[in-house]
């Protein structure tokens, strides 16, 4: 371990701050070139996060008198800003290493500066290596272990790039074939049997006959509007009671989606999709506002050298088509995270580096004065593959978005409780365990699971592929207060089932579910089928965006952080799913039972009831300024 060169009177000894195992699938290639430059980000401890969290609960609890009085950007910035002592101590440390030029993030929570890898190794008492991900050749320069002076441990949350590896694709593939373990709870209480559902999975896609809107009655039933083999916007509108709602104040309501991994939306594909499934939209002003998240100079983990045709993503098209298909004419903003990687232009390594993503995007979006009231994120990683400090810090920044009145909905994952044959800890012990997903495990986001079928809906899966709706319990985040009682009851009802494989005290997810089976997506000029909670998340986001529109029409604030409301008054607006289980890890997974469960959460949304409940909230009525705090 290298030691700092600063005066011992000013500098305490270096002590290991964080160590994290290199995720499975990455191989070490060589020591990183010392002359290469990277952009280093130092995360300073938030000054008053406990107060921010308290305020967040107040404005999100429908029984609190401050409900709906979301914080301004300035208030969030004030509560998040590091203490002056923290800033002074960290900048002194940097100065002692000759680092005098740096930039703060808007809320001053991050210090960014360019530095050579050689100097970064000295600064952090570590060594950087070049790693390659085996399945796609992505290259990353990382340091699994890093140290800082002991007196700074309580002032620095984390530093990047160190041991955060690039996020994976949101549709990870299982490396071995599906196990023969079948879900439980099917073929009972009116639910179809497993074999009946498998027969639908194996139906030839050429049999997809999608009902035409003009041929349907005004308020069609799911059996009239849906096809078991393919999911269209009119099917989702019917299934969740949205057909009769007409958006009112669309100029005041926005919905956002996030494209990581250099993915972008293809406007031609989206237009073709709308011509087929939302002909009323064609010829109207339905453009997507695109905001590209800028990359810092010297950014070492960005991409965009590929031509647009290679960067267009089926998943990115899916998000936009689902949201426009359900929520038009509400304005849509797409955040594209990615950029060029100048630090490696002349490197001998092939630079196809995925962006870490969340921190870059969160720093950018939190700096904006106006935000979409709902944001959908369809990406997920195994929780254990990200360092705890990173997961905690990202989660706290999601809390800042929530405090500003933004509902963030994320996919719960597509591997059930974990990919078969891969369910082991990565700490060297190889302990058998279920594999929770991040950021779904963060309590400040709303995790969206997946279903299939109708009358009744059941836990989502596709026997033809590898999709099983994700759900489980966090190993990083304890059970939040809004989950106490309902989640405790579910864990108790499981008895000894899966003992030792999951954290009985952890944050449970998903919170809700939406159909996640066989979405029609237009991609590269043709229609294809897509499974996954990366479809159900934007669908759920569209539903809550429409509720926000109804609230805006009554001069009421948006829903904001959904979870305290969903786990109290709004649970009456969710249809329970009690059939199936989320198989994985060569087990039947968690069963869907009455009430909340770790397969489907509280169930699926029924728009008319949720809208009514949102409008009846006790403290949401507009009040004069002098009554706001009484």
Fold and architecture overview:
By secondary structure, this protein is an alpha/beta fold. The protein is 25% helix and 20% strand. The chain contains 16 helices and 27 strands. Strands 10, 11, 12, 13, 15, 17, 18 and 21 form an eight-stranded mixed beta sheet that branches. Strand 25 (581-584) and strand 26 form a beta hairpin. The longest helix has 21 residues, at 533-553. It starts with 13 loop residues before the first strand and ends in a 15-residue tail after the last helix. Residues 1-9, 170-176, 297-311, 339-355 and 620-630 have low confidence and may be disordered.
Task: Name the poorly predicted regions.
Answer: 1-9, 170-176, 297-311, 339-355, 620-630
Mean pLDDT, nearest integer? 87
Total DSSP E strands: 27
The biggest beta sheet reads: 8 strands, mixed
Helix content: 10-25%
Count the DSSP helices: 16
Backbone structural class: alpha/beta
Radius of gyration based on Cα positions: 24 Å
- Measured by DSSP, the beta-strand proportion falls in 15-25%
- What overall geometry do the principal axes of the alpha carbons give? globular
Compute the separation of the termini in Å. 58 Å
Key terms:
alpha/beta, eight-stranded mixed sheet, 630 residues, single chain, 25% helix
Write the layout of secondary structure elements.
Blueprint: E1 14-19, E2 26-31, E3 37-44, H1 49-60, H2 73-80, H3 84-96, E4 103-104, E5 110-116, H4 117-124, E6 129-133, E7 139-142, E8 145-149, E9 156-160, H5 194-201, H6 222-225, H7 233-239, E10 254-259, H8 267-277, E11 288-293, H9 308-311, H10 314-327, E12 331-337, H11 358-366, E13 374-377, E14 381-382, H12 388-403, E15 407-411, E16 437-438, E17 446-452, E18 458-459, E19 472-478, H13 486-494, E20 506-509, E21 512-515, E22 519-523, E23 526-530, H14 533-553, H15 563-566, E24 574-575, E25 581-584, E26 587-591, E27 604-605, H16 607-615
Parallel strand pairs: 10-12, 10-13, 11-12, 13-15, 15-17, 17-21
Antiparallel strand pairs: 1-8, 2-6, 3-5, 3-9, 4-5, 6-7, 14-16, 17-18, 19-20, 22-23, 24-27, 25-26
């Amino acid at each position: 371990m290298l030691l700092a060169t600063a005066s011992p009177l000013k500098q305490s000894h270096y002590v290991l701050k964080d160590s994290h195992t290199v995720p499975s699938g990455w191989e070490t290639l060589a020591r990183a070139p010392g002359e290469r430059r990277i952009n280093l980000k130092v995360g300073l401890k938030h000054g008053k996060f406990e107060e921010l969290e308290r305020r967040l609960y107040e404005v999100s609890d429908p029984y609190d008198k401050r409900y709906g009085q979301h914080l301004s950007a300035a208030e969030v910035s004030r509560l998040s800003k590091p203490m002056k002592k923290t800033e002074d101590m960290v900048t002194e440390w940097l100065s002692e290493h000759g680092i005098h030029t740096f930039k703060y993030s808007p809320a001053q929570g991050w210090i960014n500066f360019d530095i050579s890898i050689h100097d970064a190794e000295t600064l952090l008492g570590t060594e950087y290596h070049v790693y390659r991900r085996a399945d796609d050749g992505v290259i990353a320069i990382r340091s699994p272990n890093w140290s800082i002076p002991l007196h700074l441990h309580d002032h620095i949350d984390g530093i990047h790039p160190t041991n955060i590896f690039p996020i994976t694709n949101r549709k990870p593939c299982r490396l071995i074939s599906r196990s023969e373990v079948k879900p439980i709870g099917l073929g009972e209480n009116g639910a179809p049997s497993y074999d009946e559902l498998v027969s639908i999975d194996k139906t030839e896609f050429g049999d997809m006959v999608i009902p035409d809107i003009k041929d349907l009655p005004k308020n069609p039933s799911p059996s009239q509007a849906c096809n078991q083999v393919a999911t269209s916007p009119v099917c989702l509108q019917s299934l969740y009671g949205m057909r009769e709602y007409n958006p009112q104040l669309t100029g005041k309501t926005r919905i956002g989606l996030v494209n990581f991994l250099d993915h972008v939306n293809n406007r031609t594909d989206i237009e073709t999709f709308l011509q087929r499934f939302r002909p009323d939209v064609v010829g109207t002003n339905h453009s997507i506002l695109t905001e590209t998240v800028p990359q810092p100079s010297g950014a070492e983990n960005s991409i965009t050298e590929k031509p647009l045709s290679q960067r267009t993503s089926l998943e990115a098209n899916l998000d936009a088509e689902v949201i426009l298909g359900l929520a038009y004419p509400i304005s849509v903003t797409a955040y594209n995270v990615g950029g060029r990687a100048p630090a490696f232009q002349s490197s001998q390594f092939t630079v196809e580096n995925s962006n870490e993503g969340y921190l870059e995007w969160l720093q950018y979006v939190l700096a904006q004065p106006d935000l979409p009231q709902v944001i959908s994120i369809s990406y997920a990683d195994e929780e254990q593959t990200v360092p705890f400090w990173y997961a905690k810090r990202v989660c706290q920044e999601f809390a800042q978005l929530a405090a500003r009145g933004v509902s963030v909905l994320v996919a719960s994952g597509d591997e059930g409780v974990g990919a078969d044959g891969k369910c082991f800890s990565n700490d060297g012990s190889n302990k058998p365990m279920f594999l929770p997903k991040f950021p779904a495990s963060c309590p400040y986001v709303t995790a969206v699971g997946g279903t299939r079928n109708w009358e009744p809906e059941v836990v989502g899966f596709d026997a033809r592929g590898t999709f099983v709706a994700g759900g489980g319990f966090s190993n990083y985040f304890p059970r939040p207060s809004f989950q106490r009682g309902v989640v405790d009851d579910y864990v108790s009802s499981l008895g000894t089932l899966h003992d030792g494989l999951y954290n009985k005290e952890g944050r449970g997810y998903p919170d809700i579910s939406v159909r996640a089976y066989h979405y029609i997506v237009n991609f590269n000029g043709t229609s294809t089928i897509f499974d996954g909670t990366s479809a159900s998340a934007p669908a759920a986001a569209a539903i809550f965006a429409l509720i926000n529109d109804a609230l805006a029409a009554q001069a009421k604030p948006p829903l904001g952080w959904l979870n305290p409301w969903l786990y109290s008054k709004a649970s009456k607006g969710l249809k329970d799913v009690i059939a199936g289980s989320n198989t994985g890890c060569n087990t039947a997974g968690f069963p869907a039972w009455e009430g909340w469960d770790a397969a489907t959460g509280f169930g699926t949304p029924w728009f008319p009831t949720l809208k009514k409940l949102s409008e009846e909230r006790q403290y949401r009525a507009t009040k004069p300024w002098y009554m706001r705090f009484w």
